[in-house]
UniProtKB/TrEMBL annotation:
The lineage of its organism: Bacteria, Bacillati, Actinomycetota, Actinomycetes, Pseudonocardiales. CDD domains: ABC_Iron-Siderophores_B12_Hemin. It comes from Lentzea xinjiangensis. The keyword Transport applies. One of its GO terms (molecular function) is ATP binding. PROSITE patterns: ABC_TRANSPORTER_2. Keywords: ATP-binding, Nucleotide-binding, Transport. Transmembrane segments: none annotated. This is Iron complex transport system ATP-binding protein. Residues 3-235 form the ABC transporter domain. InterPro entries: AAA+_ATPase (IPR003593), ABC_transporter-like_ATP-bd (IPR003439), P-loop_NTPase (IPR027417). It comes from the Bacteria. The keyword ATP-binding applies.
Amino acid sequence: MRIQVEHLSWGVPGKTIVNGVDLVVGDGETVGLIGPNGSGKSSLLRCIAGLRTPTGGVVRYDGADIASWSAREKARQLAFVEQTADTDSDLRVSEVVMLGRTAHRSRWRGPDAADHEVVAAALDRLGLTALADRPWKQLSGGERQRTHLARALAQRTSALLLDEPTNHLDVRHQLELMELASSTPQTVVVALHDLALAARYCDRLVLMHGGTVVADGPAADVLTAPLLRAVFDVEAEIGRDSLGHLAVGYREPVR
């Protein structure tokens, strides 16, 4: 699924947070949104997900304006995972993941064998099978995040939108999650703070600052010392680690 963002703006009274952004994400591409806190990447992602109504511009999925979709159609076409996964629900892990199947069945039909098969596959993919019957309230922060990721996979959508999905995850699960995101045939847009993860797993990086896009391209073209100095106010050195992955080292803040 191709995502096209055209001249998109969004803000609150007295403050523009996303300002005239143009962005195209190709079918099956994994694009990372990076930038400092307050740069507008999470707000942009929520507009792309249809969770916020732009004050200007449009978001299109394969040419269709997302504003024309019903909530049910959005849930069939795209899955969104927030930074934090919190709820007062008494549901079990498997029941939370089953919520991802809601848009794929009629209002009066309960889960069938196919739904249970999809949920089992999503639980297995996120290493949650042993926790399937665990109450939500007994989960750690990382387990809750993985559960919501499993729910998003169970939606079986064409697009996957992730807002800081590695929050609360240990290093192993961060790597596993980003491997999953980069290998899925879905179109993926992911907002990340970790520049090393973004460089390693995203096909393309979009660097935001002050609500606008200041760079868009391969990691080696976006993660440069001059750009990091201008956007993050740090002196950085760019190189390669022992595995050949792009590495960013920080010397000191700009003074």
